[in-house]
Amino acid sequence: MLDIERIRQEPQRIKEAIRAKGAGEPDVVDQLLDVDEERRAAITEMQETQEKQNKVSRSIGQLKREGKDDEAQEKIEETSRLKSRVKELEETVREVKEKQQRLLLEIPNVPHRSVPVGSTEEDNEVAAEVGEKPTFDFDPKPHWEITDQHDLVDFERGAKVTGAGFPFYLGKGARLQRALINFFLDRAQKNGYREMQAPHFVNEASARGTGQLPDKEDLMYEIQRDELFPIPTAEVPVTNFFRDEILAADELPVKLCAYTPCFRREAGSHGADVRGLNRLHQFDKVELVHVVEPDDSYRALESLREDAEALLDALGLPYRRLLMCTGDMGFTQAKKYDLEVWSAGQERWLEVSSISNFEDFQARRMAIRYRPEAEAKPQLVHTLNGSGLALPRVVAAILEQYQDEHGNVLIPEVLQPYTGFETIES
Fold first, then answer.
1. What pLDDT shows up at residue 267?
2. Which class for 301: exposed (0-12), middle (13-18), buried (19 or more C-beta within 10 A)?
3. Predicted pLDDT of residue 269
4. What integer pLDDT is reported at residue 73 of this predicted model?
């Protein structure tokens, strides 16, 4: 969330951010400032009443010593009234603080000044296009035909056992999945990331900390009986690892990576967007997370982006980098890149990674701080994350790009030590 002091100082800019992101109504800022004024007034009155109560209480003993029992009794009654008023004001402050907190959670992060203003995906900026799209002397198959041909993925039995969007991976399809996970994790380790195995379920506080709540409830599954959420991304448990902690300056920067399955409801998509591996409710992903000092976060963003892009370079997959516009970047991000891989069989771009800088937006929710010096006041860190990478569309791109006219597939050379096979063929 944003700092209330920043909202007091820059209300118009915050309203502009809400408009630019299409994230609610700008008048929430005015509501928040009214509540903030009410909270501060209640705190002031409470403190003044407590001070008066203490002063009156101190006078009672003196009056009794002077034999002024009637006046002492009046002061006792006044103290009782003041005490009751303090309790009323304490309750008012508590209620107003809760209201202020709810309103703060409705206000999105402010886009960095380098982010293009726009409302739809057409307004995203193509920052780079890397690699050459493959050409074929035959009509390339979409990946779902190749998975059927070689019995790599069973969508129908997955739908029978669980539901649509929960496939089984079989034989070389399963081994390709495992190979990619290990390849991504090994590359992350070489780049200085510490690997962790994270929980696959989180509580409400964790979901709120990274911004999934109250913004993305409809995208998440929920286990109501146990008040837990299956994770939509490893970002949630990994970043919350440091929630409510103060790190030493020499612990930063922190670079973490984790493989997890991800669970998303993904409502509202139709047609080619959901065919085959294009959009699943359960999928595998390796997540990269940075926790850094504020002055380092935009250098870290570019480093994180380079780490994700290097994986696509190694796999020989053409891709493009998008700088996301204000209306397509999300509630929590200050700046965001998307990496899209070329799908040769579908002849379109498929997103395989989002790389984001949240500045201190998540850290304020999670109270993740660091101490610049031994006796210094703790400051909020900046948090970043990116997919390195999400597997389904990478698998789709590999199957489509490396196919031959018979639908057989050559495994990228860098993956062969992980798969243990060079080709997928009938």
1. 61
2. buried
3. 56
4. 86
Q: What confidence score (pLDDT) does residue 214 get? A: 87
The pLDDT value given to residue 48: 96
Question: Do you find a cis peptide bond into 322, omega within 30 degrees of 0?
Answer: no
What is the rounded CA–CA span in Å between residue 83 and residue 60? Answer: 15
pTM for the model: 0.93
* CA 92 to each of CA 38, 41, 87, 98: distance values in angstroms, whole numbers, following the listed order: 9, 10, 9, 10
Contact 344, 397 (CB under 8 A): yes
Place of tokens 């780490």: 307
Residue 298 to residue 294: CA distance in whole angstroms:
9
Catalytic center residues: 264, 279, 351, 354, 393
Residue type, 414: V
Q: Name residues of the chain where pLDDT drops below 70.
A: 267-272
Distances (CA, A) of 132 to 315, 319, 342, 351, 415: 13, 9, 9, 17, 20
Across 319-360, where does the E strand assignment appear? 319-323, 335-343, 348-357
